[in-house]
User: What shape does this take?
Amino acid sequence: MANSDFYIDNDEQTVLIIMTSGPSTPSRCATPFFLGSILSAMDAEVRIFFTMEGVRLIQKGIPEKLVAMEGGKTIIEFIRDAKAAGVKIIACMPAMPGYEINIETDLIDEVDDVVGGGVLADLILTADKVISF
Amino acid sequence: MTCNGCEFKPDLYYDDQFQIWVSKEEDGTLKVGMTDLSQSIAGKIMHLRVRKPGTRRPPGKPVATVESAKWAGPIPNFIGCVINEGNTQVLENPKLLNIDPYGAWIARVTSDLPVDEALSVFLTGDEARKGYCERAHRDDIHCERLT
Assistant: This one.
């Protein structure tokens, strides 16, 4: 690695990660949190927005048991690492009824906000970078 | 001394979660590193990147990022400071953080405030030892070093 690669020199940016993957594809469910943690540690303002099947990752009882790879950390541990690094966890309200998730009782404590589709649209239009998994 | 096999050094300064240590240098700068607790949680560290020398860091803005096979996150910062340099030896060989976390300092910084005033936000000595051991027991952290 070149010496200049040892040092971080980026501007602050906002990053939106749209998480649509869920328990049906466990191998897609760890990297977004890992990436979010690194970006947040590099001063980016990171939000992970859970929609479509992604909302099942923030449903109590699911991330505590789900692993992306056999023998690996659980998804709730990845979520907590990302939160500790400063990542905000946002849930999509319109996605909840389809998965019979009650936003009052069924979401993990790590969720920062539950919002409508219009907010997602705003986040997409105002973020410096948008990534979807 | 150790708690759950995690080494503690009473002469260093620590944040209240014992993620980092800070040492006071003779030239008035501060060195920052990872505690034995932190390196054990991270596991084998693959990459370390430090903020560019000369960069001003307010409290809350990390001084570096660390990446292992199973964990990624910041080296948090609790004081206003300017980055002087990263430890080239550790940047080139990050697993030194797993081998000797208190010898493998990560960054040297200059505090915005007089050093003793800046260090007042940290814990040290017996108070730090008590909190360090409490965290090791509460979170059931058992430290392991690479050799």
